[in-house]
Amino acid sequence: MRVGIDIQFAAAGNRSGLYTSVRYLVRELRPLVNDRVLLLANGDVCHPPLGRSEYNELVSAFDGGSLRLFSPWRRLYRIAPRLSPVHRLDALVHNLHGYLPPSRSGANVYVVPDVIPLGFDYGLPAFVDGYRVYYEAAVRNAEAIIVWSEHTRGDLLARVGGDPARVHVCPLAVGPEFHRPDPDAMRAGLSAVGLADTRYVLCVSTIEKRKNHAVLLRAFERVIRRDPSLPHKLVFVGGKWVGHEAVFELAQSLGLGERFVSLGFSDHLPHIYAGADAFVFPSVYEGFGLPPLEAMACGTPVLAADATALPEVVGDAGLLFKPHDHEELAESLYRVLTDADLRRDLSQKGLARASKYSWRRTAELYLGAFQNAREKFRKRAAG
What we know:
Blueprint: E1 3-6, H1 8-11, H2 17-33, E2 37-41, H3 52-61, E3 65-69, H4 73-79, E4 91-94, E5 107-111, H5 116-119, H6 125-141, E6 144-147, H7 150-159, E7 167-169, H8 183-192, E8 200-204, H9 213-226, E9 233-237, H10 244-253, E10 260-262, H11 269-275, E11 278-281, H12 290-297, E12 302-305, H13 310-314, E13 319-321, H14 326-338, H15 340-354, H16 359-381
Parallel strand pairs: 1-2, 1-4, 2-3, 4-5, 5-6, 6-7, 8-9, 8-11, 9-10, 11-12, 12-13
């Protein structure tokens, strides 16, 4: 089966969860389709345009895929589609921020990670517009739409519409680097970020409004006020976006001082996960929720908001809390930090839960959606 994937987002420098998911997907998909996986992007629209080193980085990152960077390809495709490599595909996979028009000679598959811009108000009206165009194009043009959770499936159908039979749920998984490292490796990784001799509570996410860091800050302050002898720090890992200023202001106003650490991005994420006594994910809206799964794969006890897709991911392997109830979170967090037996139980449950997810299984589900889309296209083309 000949599959093409629009990776314009990656060529433009996006290194989000979408980038991670497509990387692992391509590696597992290649042997399943028994053909090339063609990766498509227009290097000329990137700012700055892709050079040789950036091109080589993409080739290396998407192991198993054949990268094609086109300059005039878009115009060629519109004028003479049979001369375009897109014409020879059985399935063309569209991703957010892509430039590919719908295929006229094969099935169109759209990946919709979430509909967060329609469900969460950032106070940025223009932010919504580009996403809405993509969602509506997916509903209008797709033989198949791939989502990462049942929650997103329901949300897309409710907010945008579409044919339920064309929406396929394909959950994500974690990479092999997320596991319980040996003690020496973990200490070396933690030493690199100044956490080798620190007990801490961890949150991994972009620091922004939707991630709801305020409830965690208030809960953590309540825990250490209840028991000042607890040695723990609260560690945030991730970049900054809309609303991050309020998070840091709150941490300061709560008097957390040296108890609060923000590391930004880190290359030692598996070690940071594994070294934490607890991982907390208070986000109010997720299309899947990969960080809790990564934490579970590293054997770290997980507490997550009982909201949107997170209960699907965490199941009964973690503790759920109402997303805006810092008192409930504080009580659960205190129990985890002071009860070693509970931590061991949650760690074991989390490891078992994470083992049920694999990129091979995700790739198989994607392939099933591709095949379903191809059959729909052929029936429609046959009249």
